[in-house]
Amino acid sequence: MEQSLQTVEATTEEEDFRFQVYASTRQEEVAAWGWDMTQQKAFLRMQFEMQQKSYRLQYPDANYQIIIADEEPIGHMLLVHRDDKIILADLALLPSSRGCGIGSTVIRQLQMQAEQLAKTIRLHVMITNEARHLYERLGFRVIGENGLHMEMEWKSERLSLL
After folding, report:
1. Contact assessment for residue 55 and residue 124, using Cβ atoms and an 8 Å cutoff
2. Rounded to the nearest 5 degrees, what angle is found at the Cα of 17, between the Cα atoms of 11 and 22?
3. How far apart are CA 158 and CA 42, in angstroms?
4. What digits encode the pLDDT tens for the residues 22-61?
5. What separation in angstroms does the CA of 83 have from each of 25, 71, 80, 102?
6. Is the CA virtual torsion 15, 16, 17, 23 positive or negative?
7. Edge-to-edge strands of the sheet including 85-93?
8. How many CB atoms are closer than 10 A to CB 64?
9. How confident is residue 160, by pLDDT bands cut at 50, 70 and 90?
10. pTM confidence score
C-alpha cells in the first residue's frame, strides 16, 4: 500500500498529539507497573514535559516535525541542524504506523536531505530499543555507548570518500 508521506513543521497546537505519540511509546512499560490509568497518564505527562524541557535546553534551535501519512498525523520527529551534521533527536510513530515501512521511509528521506547538504546524521537510541536494528539496516554505525544508550552515525558514501 503506497502512502503519501510528508513532514510539516509542528506548531504549539500539536503538543497534545506529540504527547499522545510519546505516551504510546511508553504505554506498555508503564502499564506493567500496576498503576491505574490516571496515575499512568500523570506519570507519562510529567515524563513528556521533562523530555520537552530537556530538548529545549539541549537544542534551542531544534525543529519539530509532524509526520503525515495520507493527510493524517502519525508521528513526530525532532531535528537539529548543525554545520556538519543533522541530529535526529527524536523520532516516534503511533503504534498503528510502526512496522510497516514508514520509519524507513522517513529515515531515507532524511538521508537524502543529508546527502544533498553533505552532512552526517547522528542519533542516540536505547540499546534495548528495536529501532536500532532499523538504523543498522539503513547504514547507521555505532560510534559510542553511554550506559543504556548508543550513539549512531550515518555518513553518505560521498562523505566517506572525503
Report:
1. no
2. 115
3. 47
4. 999 998 889 999 999 999 999 999 999 999 999 999 999 9
5. 31, 32, 10, 27
6. positive
7. 5-9, 63-69, 72-81, 85-93, 120-126, 149-154, 141-146
8. 21
9. low
10. 0.89
Burial environment of residue 155 by CB neighbours within 10 A (0 to 12, 13 to 18, 19 or more): buried
Taking alpha carbons only, the member of 3, 1, 5 closest to residue 109 is 5
Chain mean pLDDT for the chain: 91
Residue where the block lists cell 515501512: 101
Q: Please, are residues 81 and 58 in contact by the beta-carbon 8 Å criterion? A: no
Q: Determine the Cα–Cα distance for residues 131 and 84; give it in Å rounded to an integer.
A: 24
What does the pLDDT read at residue 111?
96
Question: What are the Cα distances from residue 155, in Å, to 3, 73, 113, 115, 159?
Answer: 27, 29, 12, 8, 6
Q: Which of 78, 80, 110, 72 is nearest to 92 (CA)?
A: 78
Could you give the CA distance from residue 65 to residue 62 in angstroms, rounded to a whole number?
10
| Mean local confidence (pLDDT), 134-159 | 91
- pLDDT for 28 equals 87
Contact between residue 154 and residue 111 where contact means Cβ atoms under 8 Å apart:
yes
Q: How many Cβ atoms sit within 10 Å of the Cβ of residue 125?
A: 21
